[in-house]
Amino acid sequence: MCTIHAQHARPALRPKAAQPPPADIPLDQPWKETVYDFARDHLQHSAWGLHHSERDYLLSMEIARRSNLSVDSDVLFAASMLHDMGGFPEFAKTGVDHAERSAEVCDQVLRPAGFPEDKIEPVRQAIRTHSYYSKDIPQTPEAAVLHDADCLDFLGAVGVARILSLTEREPFTPTLESAVKLAENLKNTAGQTLYSGEFARNTATTRINEMDAFLTQLDQESFGRRHL
Asked: What sign does the CA torsion over 142, 194, 154, 98 have?
């Protein structure tokens, strides 16, 4: 979620019918089913909804493995599913950044779900520093890998797809040209602060190169973006 996305002007889109979770999303505890169902039912958005949260979780776990970091998978699952919660109208608070707001309200989902009480504060810590523009450095391994995963999800092919999906849906992307410009800005900023190690940095470089190639080709095919 970008800093300009702190509160969404339009309500979240609800799925037409509940779909089973992908096989690689582990719902092996009752609280996970409850948290996942909440995200599916309340946090639907093409750029920062459920599927973005799923990718953040999977990439966080991959970063941890590749970087030899010991992490609590429960904390990462909960933080990944709820890190953008505070940016949706149902939970947003005027003047409060979506990351801080998500940290404030995540317990409203976690406690009723039966999430371990002693892990709620680590979830808050991870959520607070997940944004690429956060001025605070992540203080735990879970916070570091979630931050880096969230940054990386703004990059590469998936980053472009997320931002282009905002065209005409958000006030800051009224046109395709403006959405492309936002993707370009994120290419230059989202990978600047990575904390987990070499794997995340190398992944960022690969994804930035993907975006450079896409933007170069787009410029050619749109006559210097004059005809987007």
From this structure: positive
